[in-house]
Amino acid sequence: MPKYLIEREIPGAGKLSDQDLHAISQKSCSVLSRLGPQIQWVQSYVTDDKVYCVYIAPNEEMIRQHAQEGGFPANRISEIKTVIDPTTGE
Question: Fewer CB in a 10 Å sphere around the end CB: N or C, the chain?
Answer without folding.
Answer: C
